[in-house]
Amino acid sequence: RISLLQRESEVTLLYSYDSPVVVKSASRSNSPATGSVSLTVSGQNFGSFDYSSTGRTGGTAAEALNWISDSSIIVKVSWGIKQAKALEMNLLGRDSSVTNAYSYDTPRAVAINILNLPTTGALSITVTGSNLGFADYSPSVRFGSSASAVTVWVSDSSVV
After folding, report:
1. Pairing between strand 158-159 and 153-155?
2. Each residue of 111-132: pLDDT tens digit?
3. Secondary structure (DSSP) of 98-126
4. Which of 30, 34, 48, 97 has CB atoms 3.0–4.6 Å from 103's, for a disulfide?
5. Helix, strand and coil in the chain, % to nearest 5
């Protein structure tokens, strides 16, 4: 309530804060599919102390956030797959995001356990590699133009 010259007035919104703005991800732009990698996010108006901020990369919640300063937060990225993920932050109750800010390393097959296959099929083949994922994402394997009948995810480095 404000009084001026014997008149009173009520103001409902007197001031506001600048919205947080995520400018870029400074320290790295990708990680292994297993996640658990720290990403330093640079921006402005992150606040003068930790306000229980939240963050997501590509729709998956971050494992942890650590407020550093008004212009820097460290995000521990969780597991995931694919390229071009958005970085989304909720700071001081306000949302901010950057599209195509982050990606996971591309899956890579490096070896198979049999080099010569019978034409009848019905054989299990183990494909080893890296960045095959932290969980079963319904993987599929092709040999030339033929798709495998069943593909089973075993680990970040193996499918059968």
Report:
1. antiparallel
2. 777 766 667 666 777 888 888 7
3. EEEEEEEPPPEEEEES-SS--TT------
4. 30
5. 0, 45, 55
